[in-house]
Amino acid sequence: PIGVYLFGLLNDRAGRRISYFCCLATLLLGSFLTAISPDFWTWATSRAIVGLTIPAVYQIPFILALELVGPAYRSFVTVMTCTFYTFSLMILAGITAIIDDWRALSLYTSMPFLLYFLYVLVMPESPRWLLAQGRLEEALKVLEVMARVNGKEFPNWFRNKLHHSMASRKLRGDVDEPRRRVGAFDLCRTPNMRLKTILITLNWFANETVYLGLSYYGPELGDNAHLSFFFSSLVEIPSYILCWIIMDRWGRRWPLCLLMILSGISCSVTVMLPEESKLDTLILFLLSKSMISASFLIIYPFAGELYPTQVRGVGIGTSSYIGGLGLIGIPFINYLGKDNLRLPLVIMGAVSVVGGITGLRLPETLHHCLPQTLEEGEKFGKDWNWRECFRCIPIRPTVASMGSYENLSRKDKREDDVELNVARGKLTEKSPLERRRAQSSSMRRLVRQSSTMDTQKTHDGAMQ
């Protein structure tokens, strides 16, 4: 938990790219020290170093991927990330079944990470983070490369838009505001961000506790621990495919809460089964593991879309840090299964249900652009009302944000769509929608004036 918060701070202050390679180097250092540890305390210290990077080494590239794609591809990125993670768990079950020496196991599971340093040649910095830091030219270079790789032409109207936004910030005197040091306290300075942070953290705590608790509990249900772990990981794949379908139809909030509640119910009903019903217990366990895995998949993009770019790294790091505190109690909860095999399932089921219910208060993020600043994050979801709890299919926003590079493929954009006017030391802009509204308003005034001129009284008082 400590490492994920520290790397979350580094993620927002030094950038996604630097923080990822620092995290990767720390992980490799701890892993190699583990393999050569001569005594217990050296081994424990090396494992603590490795623990600093978990799950930051997974979260940092996920945040970067989330910021590099548009709304239509966020679900795909999330599903692919979690699918490869699950395949690695299945491979790990086979490796541990073959290799029983802990030194060799440490080397075999850490040496592949050396290949990830090749990413330094191709991995870009997040354009969103660069814009939040006021580094416009660097962000433009990254966006131009992205457009070229995708066979697109970077539109001049958007280049003008970014230059205008940066000039406006300079005139307001807040160009250096994003560069100030942000931390966990910034998440709680305003009421809406504070409430969202608390609810995201509660959901993260419930998800992480139940997901990893069930993962560690799985080997207890079978005679072969490796095979049990393999199948408990295998059941996650169908749930990810199901998530891919429903996340783009029903959004994030309802699937997250529904899956957590159903997972908790599946765990809790095992208490009503007779002692000899081990097969029924196994089936309910696998159903619960499948559903909590799907909800754990959703919490990552959901939190990333709720936290603004300015504090996205520290926000996810803080939620994951507090969620990781629940892992401390997992060994003790699973130990209760020595006397009663179903008691750990009932406890984790209750935690999952409570977490699912609290998540209904969060605003939906489907079809919305990522908030960039703390101010945008505070405004997002501020108009929430209780009717939102019962809306399964989210409403699509009618107008996309002009400040986002996520919708550059629209064909109705022209270079003259953004007008830049310099007047009285201020820059003003008109978006395409504002221009159409102004034209419609002018036309209505013209019609009223024409009607007034055409309808006049003659000298005898008759209307003409």
TrEMBL record:
CDD domains documented for this protein: MFS_SLC22
GO function terms (MF aspect): transmembrane transporter activity
Primary subcellular site in the record, as a coarse category: membrane
Start and end residues of each Major facilitator superfamily (MFS) profile domain: 1-367
Keyword terms, alphabetized: Membrane, Transmembrane, Transmembrane helix
Composition bias, Basic and acidic residues: 426-437
Cellular localization per UniProt: Membrane
TM segment ranges: 18-36, 48-69, 76-99, 105-122, 198-217, 229-247, 254-273, 279-302, 314-337, 343-362
Membrane topology: Multi-pass membrane protein
One GO CC term, this protein: membrane
Extent of Polar residues compositional bias: 439-455
Region annotated Disordered, chain positions: 424-464
Listed InterPro entries: MFS_dom (IPR020846), MFS_sugar_transport-like (IPR005828), MFS_trans_sf (IPR036259)
PROSITE patterns xref list: MFS (PS50850)
SUPFAM superfamilies (alphabetical): MFS general substrate transporter (SSF103473)
Highest taxon listed in the record's lineage: Eukaryota
PANTHER family: SOLUTE CARRIER FAMILY 22 MEMBER
Record's protein name: Putative organic cation transporter
UniProt lineage: Eukaryota, Metazoa, Ecdysozoa, Arthropoda, Hexapoda
